[in-house]
TrEMBL record:
One GO term of the biological process aspect: defense response to virus
Assigned protein family: Belongs to the bacterial reverse transcriptase family.
Enzyme Commission code: 2.7.7.49
GO terms, molecular function: metal ion binding; RNA binding; RNA-directed DNA polymerase activity
Taxonomic lineage: Bacteria, Pseudomonadati, Bacteroidota, Bacteroidia, Marinilabiliales
Pfam families for this protein: GIIM (PF08388), RVT_1 (PF00078)
PANTHER family given in the database record: NUCLEAR INTRON MATURASE 1, MITOCHONDRIAL-RELATED, PROTEIN YKFC
Reverse transcriptase domain ranges (all copies): 44-272
Protein name from the UniProt record: RNA-directed DNA polymerase
Length: 412
């Protein structure tokens, strides 16, 4: 397998993928722009180290980013070289594992997306399976057991060099605030190999659900089970809880887990509301969740904030980019009513941006003439207020109002 990983075509595809993803530099400071020249100078030595089992991955750079709930998520950024090799390994492993993954798994897989997962959930609900076991895995990527994961990979990968590489990546220390921390469990988010490893781990859950002939939808670590009765849902929920705890050693967030009805259930940002169209009694249609609307409104609010230094055409461009991306993701939902409210709200904020800009200039340079807005006679000349519609020379923004060079004769 190691020869398939180091194959020139596979490595070139991995290189293009890493460069297109861009991303920040790791602990060595090398960015993707420097990768090509580094490979030209060190490619043979790199391949030799891998074939001999002497390659040592560098530490992972830990970066904390804020979450919507106020907490922080730890991202792990490998070096560019490690990202390249992980991408190359992932491309070869995916071919072997992809054929075994279940149809109900939609996350991080080719030709599958979140919208397909949402539609499958809606299909189950509208078929009468309206008691939903919603299980939230607590910090899944940080809790993956290395020994269990390596055993699952070894079932398909017998190459000792490849297994050694994966084991080294899993055990690589993480650098946080200048301090190295050892890792005995977890898969770093931000690594090219992490999505595939998460699917390999949770494929065991998929097989257990399939064995019990259950209807379920899984997108990465977000999964839900659909049943007809509440008693059955309670029994299945307890069984799956024990399976995750005992077999996969994955903790569950009890506060966020439970049995839901469609109106109280959210999946990948979508919600469900009853439809009252004729002949569709008991059916549910898709809507964007309140949290999704709140996130959209916050992004639009930042762009249309008058204190944000931005030209008007730039605001319009950024509004279009954010709106198109959001609408493309929620294209399955019924949005018309709320979109009208959002449209009016945005227009008002844009008007305020324009008005506040002009008012700010007036207040700064013409404060002496307000609020009476009257002309002042000074001999044969007078100063013109800003609001008088009379021809007058343009005044530079840094000039004083009483600069004699910008005073006009009284007979204009």
């Amino acid at each position: 397998m190691i020869e398939a990983i180091l194959n020139r075509r596979n490595m070139m595809h991995a290189y293009r993928q890493v460069v297109s993803n861009k991303g920040a530099a790791g602990v060595d400071g090398m960015n993707v722009k420097e990768l090509y020249q580094h490979l030209r100078n060190n490619r043979e030595q790199l391949e030799s180290d891998i074939r001999q089992g002497n390659y040592l991955p560098q530490a992972i750079l830990g970066v904390e980013i804020p979450k919507s709930n106020g907490k922080k998520r730890l991202l792990g950024i490998p070096t560019v070289i490690d990202r390249l090799l992980q991408q190359a390994v992932g491309q070869v492993l995916a071919v072997r594992f992809e054929v075994e993954f279940e149809d109900q798994s939609y996350g991080f897989r080719p030709n599958r997306n979140a919208q397909q997962a949402v539609l499958k959930a809606q299909e189950y609900i509208n078929s009468g399976f309206q008691n939903i076991v919603d299980i939230d895995l607590k910090s899944f990527f940080d809790e993956v057991d290395h020994s269990i994961l390596l055993q699952l990979i070894y079932r398909k990968v017998k190459c000792p060099l490849t297994m050694r590489l994966i084991r080294k990546w899993l055990r690589s220390p993480i650098l946080i605030d200048g301090k190295l921390r050892k890792r005995r469990k977890g898969v770093p988010q931000g690594s090219p190999l992490s999505p595939l490893l998460s699917n390999i781990m949770l494929h065991e859950l998929d097989k257990e659900l399939k064995r019990q002939n259950l209807r379920f939808v899984r997108y990465a670590d977000d999964f839900s089970i659909y049943l007809k009765t509440k008693s059955t849902a309670r029994r299945v929920g307890n069984d799956i809880f024990r399976f995750l705890r005992d077999k996969l050693k994955l903790p569950i967030n009890r506060e966020k887990s439970g049995i839901r009805r469609p109106v109280n259930f959210k999946v990948l940002g979508y919600g469900f509301v009853p439809t009252y169209r004729k002949g569709e009694k008991g059916k549910y249609q898709l809507v964007a969740s309140d949290k999704s609307w709140k996130n959209l409104k916050y992004k639009l609010k930042v762009i249309t904030r008058k204190t944000t230094p931005m030209r008007f055409d730039e605001r319009i461009q950024k509004l279009g980019e954010v709106s198109r991306g959001w609408l493309n993701y929620f294209r399955l939902a019924s949005l018309q009513v709320k979109l009208k409210d959002i449209d009016g709200w945005i227009r008002n904020r844009l008007r305020y941006c324009i008005w506040s800009g002009s008012c700010r200039i007036k207040a700064r340079f013409w404060e002496q003439l307000l609020p009476w807005n009257a002309c002042e006679n000074e001999g044969t000349k007078r100063c013109l207020p800003i609001t008088r519609k009379l021809p007058h020379p343009a005044v530079a923004g840094n000039r004083r109002i009483r600069d004699p060079r910008f005073e006009c004769p009284v007979d204009i």
